[in-house]
Amino acid sequence: MWTEQQNFAIVQTELDSVFYQEFNYDDSNPVMTTCRNEALFKQLTIDRAAYIEEVYKGAPLFTITGETQTVPLQVPKVANKLTTYIKDFTQGVELSKDLFDDNMHGVWAQTVQDMALKARVTQDNNAFKIFRGAFTTTLTADGSALIGTHTLIGGGTITNLITGALSPTSLNTGIQALAEQKDQAGVVLGQQPAVLLVPPALIKHALEITDSALIADSAQNNINVYRSAYGFRVYSSPQLGAVNGGSDTAWFLLGRRHAIRRIIRQGIETALRPWQVSNNRTYLYQANFREEVVATDYVGIVGATGL
Fold first, then answer.
1. C-alpha to C-alpha distance for 290 and 301, rounded to whole angstroms
2. 149 pLDDT band (50/70/90 cuts)?
3. What confidence score (pLDDT) does residue 7 get?
4. The architecture CATH gives domain 4-59+77-304
């Protein structure tokens, strides 16, 4: 004979089985990606409610030193402190005891499955806001828009904003801008593109430019150098497009050493309140996760509005 405690454990197990099957399902493909992609979001786990970071200026280039000369020393310098507060994302659903026991038309399973799906979509929606607001509301530690003009810690200014709709020509401009981009110390790092990030409206065009055997948008049979000489990947997300408050024309090039981070305080957790402690014979099934995203510095990324 089952006890109430055993029944509760069975309910929790059944609900979690449905929830995690959907939550852990990988909807990504070689192009459409998620916030779990390390090439786009450096994954960082913390154990506190806020993440505090300062931008490191960086060292100068090495200098020629004579055999008995004193080795030149650098003094590490940081500036532009940025505090990111972790957000708590929650969702719950009430299931009547009768509905769960009878499982009429699989309603409770569909409800929990949809809840898990929305948890995944919420994570992506929150993460890709970095790029939706890259030209306006996404600010780096220096107080400037992620894609725009930045004041260097070492003095002077730099811009990582390029112009033009996505094309073979503008892509070449972006690759050059990334390669010649200076860090906070004014040193050209020579970064190479690792990711071309585009909204869904530009996927076809981006792949034609980068994956065709011959150069796109040309009557000449020239070899497509973007396919043969560069190893970057094309990625996209439905969270980038105009239908979700983003842009159907903006595009970005990211190098390996960019400073966009997904900060995870707590992964997804679920909990169940049994019907015995409710006043209306309902189970309360809920889930939450705690995380936030931040772009502390401009280094390693260039972008264009595409207009």
1. 26
2. very high
3. 67
4. Alpha-Beta Complex (3.90)
List, for residues 112-140, the tens digit of each pLDDT value: 999 999 999 999 999 999 999 999 999 99
- 75 Cβ contact list (under 8 Å, min separation 6): none
Largest CA distance in the chain: 87
Amino acid 303: pLDDT: 98
Domain spans in the chain, listed from the N-terminal domain onward: 4-59+77-304
Extract the tokens encoding 289. 């996760």
Residue that is written with structure tokens 């792949």 in the block: 207
pLDDT of residue 2: 44
Structure token digits, residue 85: 């507060």
How many residues does the structure list for the chain?
A: 307
| Angstrom distances, CA of residue 134 to CA of 129, 160, 293, 298, 301 | 8, 11, 13, 10, 11
Residue type, 263: I
Q: Report the C-alpha gap between 174 and 47 in whole angstroms.
A: 37
Kind of pairing between the strands at 282-295 and 260-273: antiparallel
pLDDT higher than threshold 90 for residue 184: yes
Mean pLDDT of all residues in the chain? Answer: 90
Q: Please tell me the distance from the alpha carbon of residue 134 to that of residue 145, in angstroms, as a whole number.
A: 6
Q: Is the dihedral of CA 177, 183, 185, 187 positive or negative?
A: negative
